[in-house]
Amino acid sequence: MILEDGPFGRNFVERLAYTYFLTPTVLLNRLSEDQVAELYCWLVEHYPHENDKRRTRAHFVGPEEKIERLRDGVLQHLSERGTPATLSAIESIQRRLPKLGFNQVLSHAKAITRKKNWQPPTPGELFAFADQKDARLVRDADELLEAVMESLSKLGTKLQGETPLRQFLWNEVAKNIFRPKDEAAFADQVKLHLQTDLVSRGVIPKREVEVRRGQETDIHVDAVSKKDGGPYEAVSVIIETKCSWNPGLEKDMESQLAGRYLRDNPCQHGIYLVGWFTSDKWADKDYRRKRLTFSDKNALQERLDAKAAELSKAGIKVRAMILDASLRNPIPTSSG
Questions:
Q1: For residue 9, which of 41, 55, 56 has the smallest C-alpha distance?
Q2: Per residue in 66-76, pLDDT tens?
Q3: CA of 138: how far to CAs of 51, 73, 324, in Å?
Q4: pLDDT at 334
Q5: In which residue ranges of the chain is pLDDT below 50?
Q6: Across the strands, what pairs with 319?
Q7: Could you give the angle at the alpha carbon of 99 between the alpha carbons of 73 and 69, nearest 5°?
Q8: Per-residue confidence (pLDDT) for residue 336, from 0 to 100
């Protein structure tokens, strides 16, 4: 009713401010984070900051100042809730009201959220870290997402290392002429690396890690633990893999990863992983070479990062990464 009827909304909020301008929490606790954000944006629209009066002397707090304090109190309340939904709500305000600037508010909200949600490691977990120098503590999907991103960075290094893994991603079709393998082969190589790096080394204390391929080129990473006498607890990350010749390279992060796999799904953490294939030894007759629309890997990474940030809302978290599988030097041949 407030949003639909401006005069009613103003009258209602002005009466409300008389009671709640100092303690808006009593009222706001009944609202979700998104509703609080909506209320704040409405207050800014109808009672903008540029209309605030400067008051330097002692005075009685009048109706106008009560509205101002209620408006600012709504934002302060939201920033101190300390929930993941709080950060998404403030980011939505930031997009709607970019001129006001909310970086400091968002930083404060992140600090509060970390403080309220921090779970100290148990003594057993600390001993596990002492025994395994590469161990990562994974208690939720956020920490699993970071562990997978770290592992994929290692794969990126191996692809261009002294004994490069890229030889498994290219086929020699004639002397010194190559064609990249298909997207399924790229996804299989990623899956194999994750199994070796995350599962075989047991880098996640007290959790069993499963890496599996979906029906298409998506990869599911599940970290599962079971408490004594209790149910299994699982956290998951979905990886959508693409190669640089894919015609849906820019749109599929939204249409497939966020729109299909993460929406209305218990798993809401995803990685959009792109294999970057270039080479002057790439066969000219390969139709995929003509489909390459990006010549600058860093520029593409920036565009994908921006899209991932845009899609990370309402509990969904998306990250983007490019793995360089370019063929710059001849693939070494075996001497057997």
A1: 41
A2: 888 888 889 99
A3: 48, 36, 27
A4: 46
A5: 334-336
A6: 271
A7: 15
A8: 37
* 242: three-class secondary structure by DSSP: strand
Name the residue type at position 272. Answer: Y
C-beta separation of 222 from 187 below 8 A: no
Written as one letter, the residue type at 195 is Q
Q: Burial code of 48-77, b = ≥16 C-beta within 10 A, e = fewer?
A: eeeeeeeeeeeeeeeeebbbbbbbbbbbeb
Question: What's the rounded Cα separation, in Å, for the pair 135 and 144?
Answer: 12
Q: Largest alpha-carbon pair distance within the chain?
A: 92
Question: Global pTM?
Answer: 0.66
DSSP symbols for 98-125: TTT--HHHHHHHHHHHHHHH--PPPHHH
Structural domain spans, the chain? 6-117, 124-324
Read off the amino acid at residue 58: A
**Enclosing H/E stretch for 318:** strand 317-324
Which residues, 6 or more positions from 272, have their beta carbon under 8 angstroms from its beta carbon? 240, 242, 252, 253, 257, 304, 308, 318, 319, 320, 321
The pLDDT of residue 323: 95
Per DSSP, 166 falls in state G
